[in-house]
Amino acid sequence: MPKAKKQKSTRASSSQDKPEKMNLRKSPSQKRAIERVQYILDIVTGLLDEVGTEAITTNLIAQKAGIPIGSLYQYFPNKHAIISAAGERHLARVNDMVMDFIDSKPDMSNWESLVDQLIDAFARFYKTEPGFIPIWSNKNLDPQLVSIDRENNRAIANFVSDLFFGVIPWMKKKEEMTVMSRIMVEVTDSVLSRWLRESQDQALADGILQELKTMLKSYLNYYIQRGEK
Fold it and tell me: What are the boundaries of each domain within the chain?
């Protein structure tokens, strides 16, 4: 069965593009300045997990980072810009994770196994990426985050179409999966967010993850059976 080709174009945006899109007051060009911005974002994502989005202030960020508040304002005009920048960095890392998944040469021998592997890859990312859930659980409060999330999900859906094209038995045209792949991405995003919130109840969390896999495979199988008739 033919394998999906590696598609670099599925990235919503590359990591190198990020400084131009982070709401920075000035875009860092020197290595030291770039490292300073990344350090600030590391501090912010850690604070998000500790205190949540509402409790974060620019003073708290500067204090935690051990830098003068003026240095923070050199790059970010306000708290909103910093959180948006952290969110954009998350999405760049999601896309990097997608490409790492392809590079890992996942088992393409059957589509059901591929669904399981893909969900596991996203679950690992959601669980280990600092500050991910606090930001994206509140994305509707920030129009910019809503916009970049929509664009990124569209890019990930294109990746899903590319990945499963040639693996799903009945599929003749990649366009046939355009809407299906978008639904799969949106459902996965929503369910994994709930899965993380239930992490203290391991049995429930495990059940949610398994049901997500079952739901997606049942969804695809409906179209497979219909296409084979």
Answer: 15-228
Among 132-136, 160-164, 190-194, 223-227, the range scoring the smallest mean pLDDT is 223-227
Do the beta carbons of residue 98 and residue 13 sit within 8 Å?
no
- Separation between Cα atoms, residue 213 and residue 119, nearest integer Å: 7
Kindly state the average pLDDT of the residues 141-155. 85
What CATH number belongs to 15-228? 1.10.357.10
The string of pLDDT tens digits covering residues 174-194 is: 677 788 889 999 999 899 988
Burial readout 98-126 (b: 16 or more C-beta within 10 A, e: otherwise): beebbeeebebeebeebbbebbebbbebb
The three-state secondary structure class of 93 is helix
Measured between alpha carbons, how far apart are the two ends of the chain, in Å?
21
